[in-house]
## 1
Amino acid sequence: MADLSTPLGKVIGQPSASPLAKYRGIHTVGDLLDFVPRRYLEPGRLTDLSRLVEGEDVTIVARVDRATTRPMRQRKGRMLNATITDGTRELDLTFFSAYGHEGRLVPGALGLFAGTVSRYHQTWQLTHPDYQLFTTQEQEAAVEQYTGSLIPIYLAAGKQMPSWKVRNVAQIVLGSLREVPDHVPPDVRRDRGLVDLASMYRLLHQPSTDKDVSRARHRRRYDEAFAVQTVLAQRRMAGEALHTTPRLARQGGLLEAFDARMPFELTAGQQEVGAEIARDLAREHPMHRLLQGEVGSGKTVVALRAMLSVIDSGGQAALLAPTEVLAAQHLRSITSMLGDLAEGGLLGGSEIGTRVVLLTGSQPAGARRRSLLDAASGDAGIVIGTHALIQEHVQFFDLGLVVVDEQHRFGVEQRDALRGKGRQPPHVLVMTATPIPRTVAMTVFGDMETSTLTELPAGRSPIATHVVGNPRWFQRTWERVAEEVRSGHQAYVVCPRIGDSDPSPAPGAGQREPGTAAGDWSDEDLEVTFEADDLAQPSTRVLRSVLEMEAELRRNLALAGLRISILHGRMAADDKDEVMRAFAAGTIDVLVSTTVIEVGVDVANATVMVIMDADRFGISQLHQLRGRVGRGVSPGLCLLVTETESELGQQRLLSVAATNDGFTLARLDLEQRREGDVLGAAQSGGRSQLRLLRLLRDEDLILAAREDAFAIVAADPDLDQHPALRALIASALDDEQAAYLERG
Ligand code: ADP
Ligand code: MG
């Protein structure tokens, strides 16, 4: 008898086990049972042959219509041609040796055929397919097996292990399976109408009806959500068990002084969230809060006020930004908001003031050393930086609060690394402008409390968005830009590429440091996040680049005399900083850039944005980008320029133009991506077990699993009463760890 951890070879013999290990990484009984069929066929129903696709691997049910053999010209022996049919259409089978097939592939024989579809002289073919007949003498047992049930179709494990051999192996394994410990407690199964684990495996590998299959699949999806939520519940509990210093603003302190000089009223939302955060900071357990808010909703002020109360209580705050451009902008805007409050220790500075310093990977050594010293001595109350802040030799005197801006660029691991820098666990505030649908928030950020800023500060003007899909209107686009500039405003032009041919980032400019999730970084030559294979027709068009665009605009008479500059991730940090400064100061009229300006850049005087090859960007990304304009009192305008012919591509752009509601767009984005992308590298990498979870469709299921998992963990934090669940979590975390290490 076997259990889930029994090596497969012990149950089915090494010759059968080897190809499974080699081609599919299946080593144990449990691995095999989790290797679930991709589809199910009905033995009585012939497969529709009208939908064959060249090059596709198929397994089909069909009947032999006719078969002929003939001698071969060049070699001895005879070849066999058979034609199988679904009753309407036909498919040719070719065997270069008739031997062993002749007596079996006779007219009327019914069976399963598997192979790669090819096309030859107008006919569909399978060359040397594997097959299993239902009707021949030697396969009588097969008929028996299949009668009245569905035929599970598996991925083959190499030539020796076609689908039905995998199926036979699965049957043997099921037959030898001892009782399977179930990680979902019986009362939960009863309440949620879930089948037990052993039954789930049986229904997956030997179903009789479609209903069996859907019950089994339902249980599998629940299991995924349940495992994730159990981990999150444990993380939440572990956070609750930590002790730290409460951080309260003091009377006559920095926060009070700042509030008194703030140039605007906080919105109701900002006040509410501010109060939530103040309550969190007053507790003896570290805060772990996610702050969501549309672009321009004013998250920075909320974070700054939290930082000031931490400084008031003698601690320091770190602000982590995803790019150097954004870190530098935060430094500028925070120092200017604080005024002389940011000149602590300097002559003429405020008495209660503090110091704000910058720490980034490409800083000159001297400046960096000073920042490191200020952080370590405690002279700097606020340390703003990029990934460089996470590096090990950065020390703080008393780190009380970590603010992570624009979370979607940071993984869980990086958050954890920063949390480890305090003498005591610091409070953590994560901010994101990407509206996160509820189910995603519950899974990716499910171990955090969440706050949401829904309103924009008063006086904001709406952004109008238009799709420019006709080349006749392209010149009009540039005239429109010129008009904005002439009326005293500024413009962004965003391109998907940088345009120099060297694909490797220049030293110092590349900020992709170890641990950054690969593939989501904007400082690459190709800066689009949208994948070509999501498009109806992958395009071979050459995409617009910053460098070409700059040259083109300089030649364009409509823009004559305008001050045009460029910005991209491969420029040196000083140059980037200088360009952003100049743009903020209004001495650049048109900024041609890549998506480095995507997150958080705030120049209120910029009123128009032109996005080139807009079809190559994701929906949410376009929404983020256009949030850069219309930040002041003048209305914003966003022009989505595209040459795509794809219906889907145009449709996506029209939906971005149709609404300014980030949540609607985030949902749309999610619906259009294939599962797996959602939580892929861009989020937190290692959580690959989430792949199956269809985050929108399974909302109810995720809610249920979350409720169950949190109840179980609350009653039994170490899962002593739930050994099967504990084992499952441990092995899932091992996999995650391994995946993380592999990524480096
Ligand atoms: P985001 O949430 O996108 O990070 P910011 O924090 O950058 O937004 O804020 C956008 C702009 O709005 C900034 O210039 C900021 O000073 C301003 N702002 C923030 N709160 C208010 C408010 N309550 N009233 C008016 N302007 C505000
Ligand atoms: Mg921001």
Note: Residues 299-300, 405, 600 surround magnesium ion (ligand 2) (CB under 6 Å).
## 2
Amino acid sequence: MSSHDTSEGEETDTKTERSAETLLSEHEAQLNALIADVQGPDADSVETQLPNLGLGLGRRDFMKAGAAVGVLGSVAGCAGQGDSQGGTATPSSSHGDVPDHFVPPGEHDKYYGFWSGGHSGEVRVMGIPSMRELTRIPVFNRECAKGYGFDDGTGEMLKDAGDYTWGDSHHPSLSETDGKYDGEYLFVNDKANGRVARVNLKYFETDAILDVPNVQSVHGCCIQSPNTEYVFANGEFRTPLPNDGRDVDDPSKYVSLFSAIDPESMDVLWQVKVSGNLDIADSDKDGRWLLSSSYNDEEGVEIEEMTRDDRDSVKAFDVPAIQKAVDAGKYEEVNGVPVVDGTRESSLNKGDNPLVRYIPTPKSPHCVEVTPDGKYGIVAGKLSPTVSIIDIEKLGTEPDPAKTIVGQPKLGLGPLHTTYDDRGHGYTSLFIDSQVVKWDIEKAVESPKGSEEAILGKIDVHYNPGHIQAVQAMSVEPTGDWLVVLNKLSKDRFLPVGPIHPDNDQLIYIGNDKDNETGGMELVSDHPVYPEPHDAIMVHKDKLDPAKIWDAKDYEGEREYISEKNSGIERLDDSTVEVNMSSKRSEFGLREFTVKEGDEVQMTVTNIEKSPDIIHGVAIPEHDINLALAPQDTREVTFTADDPGVYWIYCTYFCSALHLEMRSRMIVEPRD
Ligand code: K7E
Ligand code: CUA
């Protein structure tokens, strides 16, 4: 195990931790009083008393705090403290100087939002500010509505990427040119299986998935600003390297790896092994530093060990320096990937230009987000009520890593994520307090560590927020108008739908800076969401240019375009037939075709329509075949016709008045 220096800034830190403890116990006392009145079903009888996390806060208390703060929020709302304090979603007219978030029928939203879908494995596309769900993009999940994973192309892509049937998508990142979203690609991680996927934003379709070698779980994932030269992926869980049965009983040999991926080829270029672990990542705006939070510098395998120390670290990767080391051959190769040693003891980290800088930060930080001007990386404390402000310029000049932290305001309990407007403000989600806090970044740098001077206002959210994201806040051009809070719990906010509740995404207007309790933040709407988005990223609609129909040139050489004329069936050998079929309103290019029992059928179908929005499906009962074809798209599917009989192929998308009649007949003759 690496023993890292904890002497720097110890004093400030111990103080921070103590005051956190005091704060928490006061908070607990208030909550207990409240809970006595409004006890939910047996919150206290939960038996999962997890170990003390070092702040005098067990898991049970953690959850209870959230629950009660939630109650506080609703009570405040009902007591008429104004709609900004919660209560119900109100008609926009009552918000005065808040622009309309209601988008009238037939009109379009101003922004696209891309939501990670959590363990649904997908990405969801939202309209902002209406918060209407526009579509879903299946990524790590096989999905029937769009036929994703059913045709040979997407099926093989999923198979080659590990053949898992699900994923856990957390962090969507949009490609950039000059620090601005360029509308080309969206990248997203799979925490569950250590993968990174690319979504092509011309077709809103996943076009590549990489199963990252040597890592088990990819959590942090982002592109390199400003020009998307790399995609970065953080291996969260420490494992033996390679994880092939060696060192299983020796956790000191486990490692976490930071990976750099080529965004075009989607291959791993190199990896860096580190001391401790890696969690969430963000890039600076100049293509030099990649900052990563990490919560297990203890290199523990159990929760008590992982939370033992008062400090963990943020790791700052000097990307050009690492690339140079790789080019100079300073690596070992593991499973075909160059792995550079970036641990604390590594010789590459000695001297004036270490590849990886370890910046001590308070206890189990959760996240790091770089400010739009590229000046600071803001690290949320999670188990500390502070956020730490890292001066990015100092990373290259300041010899003492602890001194790159130039501010450490105390913001509230359970800070998780921070987002930004265009006016120098940070907005941080407070998981335990169930609030969003707005604060002045420069003021926080000027004021003493641990002070609350920079806070401009707080607003209750419902309940227990995780990620928080304002429009274009991860780029150099935040718009500073709308912000969404992705709340983990909805509790009483919606009609009950059984024990698995929806999450609650809330929309907050941040365009008015006001000298009031919330600093001008106004909560405008609630939106139930299917479990469980983690993060979102939003972009102005004009930055995207999605195709309305397919351009057959885009798959030329891969799939053959099937017109009505070249529809037909051809026997390739005794057990293989090729079936080519066009589709249009309201007929397939073949009214029927005959194959033999046991034949492998290689079917190619083109939707020959050119009118946007006319989709045709190809469903074959009892064969698990389900394709969806947009105009000018071609898909292939290979299957075995196992059982003799008649099978009605039909169209699944309601395409015309004769949609029900849009059918073909597959006859499977018994083999004699
Ligand atoms: Cu904070 Cu996976 Cu981004 Cu969830 S992580 S909250
Ligand atoms: Cu084609 Cu329904």
Note: The radius of gyration is 27 Å.
